[in-house]
Design a protein that fits this description.
With 437 residues, the protein is α/β, with parallel strands linked by helices. It has 15 helices and 16 strands. The protein has helices spanning 2-9, 27-37, 76-86, 134-137, 164-170, 196-208, 223-229, 267-278, 288-295, 313-320, 326-340, 375-388, 393-411, 422-427, 429-434; strands at residues 16-19, 43-46, 61-63, 92-95, 117-121, 139-143, 159-162, 185-189, 213-218, 234-237, 255-258, 284-285, 308-309, 343-346, 352-354, 360-363.
Length: 437
C-alpha cells in the first residue's frame, strides 16, 4: 500500500486489491490503508473467488501478497489468485519473494507467483540460489533498505557469497624475485583415445592459472597432441596405448588432478588406488574419476582428506544418491563434506562449495554460455593450479570457481551465450586474475 501511494503521487493509475486471509491486520497495515484512502478510492478487497479481478493486458502487476514470513503452501483463495495472476500474461514484479515461494526450503509442487522480476531486501535469500526456483524468480534485484551498518556484522550466515573482495583477500600477488619453483609442480592424470581435448583444456587452464610446472600423465595416443597443443606442459606417457592402465611415481608433485577424459574402465579402480596410495596430500577429482568412485564406493574412504571433488548434478547423484530437490541436495553435500572431510564443488549456475566444518559458499560469477562440454575440464585445471601453488583446498576452490565464472563473463561480451566456447573462456583467465590486483 505504501508503494501504491508512491505510484499515485507520481501520477500513475493504480488499483489496489487486498486479499482477505482471515488474519488480523497489523498496525502498519491499518496506517498505510488510511493514508492510501486519502489518495484513492480504487481499493478493493477479495474475500471470495467471485471477486478476483480481471487483469487487462497492459497492466503491470505488483505482487505483495506474501513474503519471507510464509510458513505453509498457498491454498484456497490465495492459490486461486496466484494461478489467476500467472495466467494473465502480464509483467509481474514481486516484492521480497514471489508469493508462495519459501525462503529456506523447497517449494516444488506448490503454487507460486511466476515473477519477471523480484525486488528483495539487503541480502540474497537461499531460494534465489536454487535452480529449481528459476521459473518463479526471474531477475532478482537486491535493494539496500538501510539496515544499521553493524547489524549484518553480528550475524553468522550458513552460506557466504563468493564476491571479488572475498577472493582478493585470499589471493597472493607475486613478488619480483619469485621463480617457477615458488608456484608448485602439478600433475594431471587424464586422457584416453578420442578424449584428449579434455586434457588439453585442463592443462591449458592450469598453466594460465599460475602453476610453476605441469606434467601431464597421459596414454601414448595423446603424446603428439599434447606436445603440440600445450607446449608449456611436460608429458609422461603411461602404460596403455589408448587409455592409462597404471601411473608412475607421483612423489615429486605438490598437487595432482585425476579424471578429465579418462573414460570409464575397470582399470581406473587400480589407477585411483595407486594415486591415493602415492599422494597423501589433497588432490582434485573430476569426471571419470568421480564416475569410477561412484561404481566402486569403497574408494571414497581412500581419498586424501581435504581433496576437492567437482561433480555436476548427475555425477553427484551417482556418488551420493538422488535428491528430491535442490535444498536437500546441498544439505547432502554438506553432510558428505563433513563425513568424508572433503571439499565438494557442486557445479551449477550458482556453484555450491561444501566445506567440512565451515560455512559453505555460493558462487556469483558465470553465465548460461557455460552449459557446454569442456568447462568442467577448465575448472579442474584451475583448481589444480591453485592447489599446487600452496593455497588451501578451500581457498583453491573459492578462487578457481570464482575466476572460472568471471573469465566466462568476460568472454561472453564478445559473443553470444550459444556460441561461447571453453577456449574463449580460457583466453580470459588472465584478465579475470588481473582484476584481483
Amino acid at each position: 500500500m505504501a508503494l501504491a501511494r508512491l505510484f499515485l503521487q507520481s501520477g500513475r493509475s493504480v488499483s489496489v486489491y487486498i486479499l482477505e486471509t482471515g488474519s488480523k491486520n497489523s498496525p502498519d497495515f491499518q496506517t498505510n490503508l488510511t493514508h492510501l484512502r486519502e489518495l484513492s478510492s480504487s481499493i478493493h478487497f477479495i474475500p471470495e473467488p467471485a471477486v478476483i479481478p480481471s487483469l487487462p493486458g497492459d497492466t503491470l502487476i505488483i505482487d505483495a501478497l506474501f513474503g519471507s514470513g510464509l510458513n505453509k503452501p498457498l491454498d484456497g483463495l490465495a492459490a486461486l489468485l496466484a494461478e489467476h495472476i500467472n495466467g494473465s500474461g502480464n509483467e509481474i514484479i514481486s516484492i521480497d519473494l514471489p508469493s508462495g515461494l519459501f525462503a529456506n526450503k523447497s517449494s516444488v509442487g506448490n503454487t507460486v507467483i511466476k515473477a519477471d522480476r523480484v525486488l528483495s531486501f539487503q541480502c540474497y535469500k537461499l531460494a534465489f540460489m536454487m535452480a529449481e526456483n528459476a521459473r518463479w524468480i526471474g531477475q532478482v534485484h537486491i535493494l539496500d533498505i538501510g539496515l544499521h551498518p553493524g547489524f549484518l556484522q553480528n550475524i553468522t550466515p550458513d552460506h557466504i557469497l563468493l564476491e571479488r573482495l572475498l577472493i582478493k583477500s585470499f589471493f597472493k600477488k607475486r613478488g619480483l624475485f619469485t621463480h617457477k619453483g615458488n608456484f608448485g609442480h602439478a600433475a594431471l592424470i587424464a586422457g584416453s583415445y578420442g578424449m584428449m581435448g579434455a586434457v588439453e583444456l585442463a592443462a591449458s587452464a592450469c598453466m594460465r592459472s599460475g602453476v610453476g610446472k605441469l606434467t601431464c600423465h597421459i596414454p601414448a595416443c595423446g603424446y603428439t597432441i599434447m606436445q603440440l597443443a600445450v607446449p608449456e606442459a611436460m608429458c609422461i606417457t603411461e602404460e596403455g596405448a589408448d587409455h592409462i592402465e597404471s601411473v608412475s611415481s607421483l612423489e615429486k608433485y605438490e598437487a595432482i588432478a585425476v579424471g578429465p577424459g579418462l573414460g570409464l574402465r575397470k582399470s581406473n579402480v587400480e589407477l585411483l588406488e595407486n594415486c591415493f596410495r602415492q599422494h597423501s596430500k589433497p588432490m582434485v577429482l573430476d569426471a571419470d574419476a568421480l564416475n569410477t568412485i561412484a561404481e566402486w564406493p569403497m574408494l571414497l574412504t581412500l581419498i586424501p582428506q581435504g581433496s576437492i571433488l567437482t561433480p555436476h548434478i548427475k555425477e553427484f547423484e551417482r556418488l551420493f544418491g538422488k535428491s528430491n530437490n535442490d535444498f536437500e541436495r546441498i544439505q547432502i553435500a554438506i553432510e558428505k563434506a563433513n563425513a568424508l572431510q572433503l571439499v565438494i564443488v557442486l557445479k551449477g549456475h550458482h556453484t555450491f562449495i561444501a566445506v567440512p566444518g565451515q560455512q559453505s559458499f555460493f558462487n556469483t560469477t558465470g553465465n548460461p554460455g557455460m552449459a557446454k562440454a569442456g568447462y568442467g575440464d577448465l575448472l579442474t585445471g584451475m583448481l589444480l593450479a591453485f592447489l599446487a601453488q600452496g593455497y588451501t583446498p578451500v581457498q583453491s576452490a573459492c578462487i578457481a570457481v570464482f575466476l572460472h565464472g568471471r573469465a566466462a563473463d568476460l568472454a561472453v561480451t564478445e559473443t553470444a551465450f550459444e556460441a561461447l566456447l571453453p577456449s574463449d573462456c580460457l583466453k580470459c583467465i588472465g584478465m579475470s586474475i588481473r582484476e584481483l590486483y
